[in-house]
Amino acid sequence: MSLKKIFLKTNFSYKVYLYYNLYFKHKAFINRPYYSQWGEDLSIKEFFQEKKSGIYFDVGCFHPFMYSNTCLLFKKGWHGVNIDINPTSIDLFKIARPNDFNLCTTINEEKKEFKMYYDHAFSPVNTLDYSYYNNFKNKYFKEGTFKTVKSKSIEDILKLTEIKRVDFLNIDVEGMDLKILQQLIPSKFKPELISIETHNVDGSKTNDCDKIYEFLKNHKFEIYKKVGPSTLFMI
Fold first, then answer.
1. Per-domain residue ranges for the chain?
2. What sign has the CA pseudo-torsion 215, 34, 104, 167?
């Protein structure tokens, strides 16, 4: 049995593993030049180089350090809202960023409950999108676990967090990116910069890539940079 599975057996050992994951496995106390999987955060930091403090809104935040597009901003003095469907991700954020608003939910105006296709507690590919799950179920999702996620409306989230503006919006929700984007832009937020996945790792377009480009173009955003699978849009 793996060390991870042993630690996940009880509440106490689970909490111990969270600290192990953050401070031993990911060495959270060591400052790194970048944290994003593809270096997106270097371009994000460059864009906001004159802005010492600001607010990020991260949907599909996954991990406070691993693959994080907001960690460099956090270390610079920013704060914000971190949202993920995985309870373990939010438990990690509560330890690493206790002054942020860390919510285990997804965004839906009808406050529906969604079926989550669950890989494992520390997986970056947990998803609510059946098509995404179906495409990758032979590579991931070996145990075929399903869970339920209760959503919140964006109005509920804004009321809870008392956020009045967002400077940087990050969306990485494994197939649900366009649906989340359309609920936030432009009626709720008009951030200076948006990072959203538009391509797959192999460079091919995601199913909603062209729709994302067209939607943001119609709302006066233009491409700042493309970095790995992500495209950064500025207003």
1. 1-30, 33-106+154-234
2. negative
CA distances from 213 to 63, 110, 174, 230 (A): 27, 26, 17, 12
Q: Which residue, among 94, 75, 67, has the nearest Cα to 31 in the 3D structure? A: 75
Residue 143 has pLDDT above 80, yes or no: no
- Per-residue pLDDT, 3: 62
User: What is the fold, at CATH topology level, of the domain defined by 33-106+154-234?
Assistant: Rossmann fold (3.40.50)
Dist CA 189 CA 169 (whole Å): 9
- Predicted TM-score (pTM) of the model is 0.95
Q: What are phi and psi of 230, to 5 degrees?
A: -100, 150
pLDDT tens per residue across span 154-203: 999 999 999 999 999 999 999 999 999 999 999 999 999 999 999 999 99
pLDDT at 1 over 60: no
Instruction: Tell me the percentage of the chain whose pLDDT exceeds 70.
Output: 97
